[in-house]
């Protein structure tokens, strides 16, 4: 379903970094170099049944010979992590997309503050590789239950030295976003992890007056919004003048496909950014967690976002 190019890569290493997290290394069976990627990027991993899951690249972006992912086993999840833990062992072939980045490093920043909760540290680990190689000023906060449960801890210690700050709740130590203080020019803050952590960072920084352009958050999970009741609406296709009706129980993405539009997609839960399209003349109800605020006036994610009454799509 995705328009992204998918490669057949070989698992060359699988190492447990915590009791629940496996670090997988992939290489191309023939080519010495994989497509270039930027820190913060993720790939789609295609499961046997055609479904895809998104995982952040967590290795050194300068190392084109391999892709490294760290995947947490989620027993209560949607099944993707269990499949990868059980099937992606050394020698296995995996279908991996070209990388895509929704969580880039602000190259203009003079200092970077990275905050990772649990497995959310993965894109920040790639940023740490990049920032350390460039001699940038950065600090990385790693929040976990304990050292034993902290993903990538040993390699982050080796890479970051005293720029790594660990917060282990079992030892009574918790990261407090209030400590980030008042806004500072040139300082950019990046957070990824459980929603309670990313919400706390966002709310605290917003309250302290940090400009949204200096705060970067990546979410792994769809928007938690149990009380939302979808309503039907109409979408006018700008290029043809056709109007398509979107029933309350069908996504805009599905309706567009039924009308012959080859819409790319991947996660279909509003977290990856693959299905982004343009719109105008309508009130869109944004229900994704990936589109930056600055783009919401004229871009939307039709896999989850909808409109009030009607909208014109730039298709
Ligand atoms: S398919 Fe991932 S955001 Fe729409």
UniProtKB/TrEMBL annotation:
Boundaries of every FAD-binding FR-type domain copy: 4-106
InterPro entries: 2Fe-2S_ferredoxin-like_sf, 2Fe-2S_ferredoxin-type, 2Fe2S_fd_BS, Beta-grasp_dom_sf, FAD-bd_FR_type, FNR_nucleotide-bd, MRET, Riboflavin_synthase-like_b-brl
Keywords, comma-separated and alphabetical: 2Fe-2S, Flavoprotein, Iron, Iron-sulfur, Metal-binding, Methyltransferase, Oxidoreductase, Transferase
A GO MF term: 2 iron, 2 sulfur cluster binding
Domain of life, per lineage: Bacteria
Domain 2Fe-2S ferredoxin-type: 233-315
Keyword RNA-binding: no
A Pfam family annotated for this UniProt entry: Fer2
Any single GO BP term: methylation
Protein name: Vanillate O-demethylase ferredoxin subunit
UniProt organism field: Methylobacterium pseudosasicola
């Amino acid at each position: 379903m995705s328009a992204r190019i998918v490669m057949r890569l070989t698992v060359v290493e699988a190492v447990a970094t915590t009791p629940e997290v496996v670090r997988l290394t992939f290489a191309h069976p023939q080519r010495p170099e994989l497509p270039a990627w930027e820190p913060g990027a993720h790939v789609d991993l295609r499961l046997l049944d055609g479904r895809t899951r998104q995982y952040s690249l967590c290795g050194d972006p300068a190392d084109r010979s391999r892709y490294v992912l760290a995947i947490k086993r989620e027993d209560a999840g949607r099944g993707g992590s269990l499949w990868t833990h059980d099937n992606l062992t050394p020698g296995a072939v995996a279908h991996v997309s070209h990388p895509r980045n929704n969580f880039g490093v602000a190259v203009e920043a003079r200092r970077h503050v990275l905050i990772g909760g649990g497995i959310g540290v993965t894109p920040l680990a790639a940023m740490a590789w990049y920032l350390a190689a460039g001699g940038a000023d950065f600090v990385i906060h790693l929040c976990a239950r304990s050292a034993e449960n902290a993903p990538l801890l040993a390699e982050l210690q080796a890479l970051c030295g005293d720029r790594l700050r660990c917060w282990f709740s079992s030892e009574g130590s918790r990261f407090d976003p209030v400590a980030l203080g008042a806004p500072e020019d040139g300082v950019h803050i990046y957070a990824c992890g459980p929603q309670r952590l990313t919400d706390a960072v966002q709310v605290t920084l917003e309250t302290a007056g940090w400009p949204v352009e200096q705060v970067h958050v990546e979410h792994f999970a769809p928007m938690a919004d149990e009380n939302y009741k979808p309503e039907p609406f109409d979408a006018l296709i700008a290029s043809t003048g056709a109007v398509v009706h979107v029933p309350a129980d069908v996504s805009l993405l599905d309706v567009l496909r039924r009308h012959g539009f080859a819409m790319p997609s991947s996660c279909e839960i509003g977290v990856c950014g693959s299905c982004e399209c343009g719109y105008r003349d309508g009130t869109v109800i944004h229900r994704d967690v990936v589109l930056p605020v600055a783009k919401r006036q004229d871009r939307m994610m039709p896999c989850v976002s909808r409109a009030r009454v009607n909208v014109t799509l730039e298709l």
